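[audit] Reproducing an earlier prediction to check determinism. Same input, same settings, fresh worker. If the tokens differ from the archived copy the diff job will pick it up downstream; this log only records the rerun itself.
[audit] input (299 residues):
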Amino acid sequence: MVENSVNINVGMSVSQKIRSFVELMKMRLSLLVAFSSAFGYTLAMGGRVDWLQLAALFVGGWLISGASCTVNQVLEKDYDKLMKRTQTRPLPTERLNNSESLWFALFTAIAGISLLWASTNLLTVGLSVLSMILYSFVYTPLKRVGPIAVFVGAFPGALPPLLGWTAATGTISHEALIIFGIQFVWQFPHFWAIAWVADEDYKKAGFKLLPVKGEKDMKTAFQIMTYTLFLIPLGLLPTYFGLTGINSAVIATVCGVLFLASTIKLMKDQSRKSALRIMFGSFLYLPIVQIAYLLDMVK
């Protein structure tokens, strides 16, 4: 009876450990990265995909993103302890320690890079490594320096669709830069809405992500509105350059206008509720528009 009890406890401990490692990877973020990579690849291929290569790209992107998120949490362990939204993560709660987390990051990074190396090309691998370095070792420490961190973080955040394109074609073309540009500009209202909602927590950790003077005021709301406004013409470029048809242009425009409307509401009341609406709207905008492009791409 005692032996069975011990075995159950060991099993539960291993299970909890595995869940903690998975939690380090920030699954929603990493899966969004993987999806955006697959989007860029499929768009470049005109729908005529190599499913084995696409699967390798998806899993490789997911692993590299997970490694970046893990390093980010190791570097921010002490700051995560200070914030309510991050206090329950594996490192602040000591479910995992720095050493095993870094080994896990190294393993997932090597696995992801190896997968991309075997299935894509040197350009894609190089951009993947650059993305990981920028996110983990440049963007992460800059969060306590100032809003320049958002600009820097927008680069690795926007690279996934570009990686997908280069995996398919081996080149960075103007079409690749268009899908990169859309996701790059999208990062700003997305980041700033999150920073607005989490402002009190961020201040406890010394994070400075809001633009201008770092205040939740009209100037910040205007910045959010301005970058969202740019998404409307940018969303039309895939159609203009013959990547997609008119239907996706209509969907991208409607989504852009609705997104913009939520930022105007923030300018009016500068409330947390309006910032939350922008934050959730940003989560919806990108996958909806990218799926619309895929369904309407010119083959």
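[audit] rerun output stored. Observation attached for the diff report: Confidence is low (pLDDT under 50) at residues 1-12.
[audit] end
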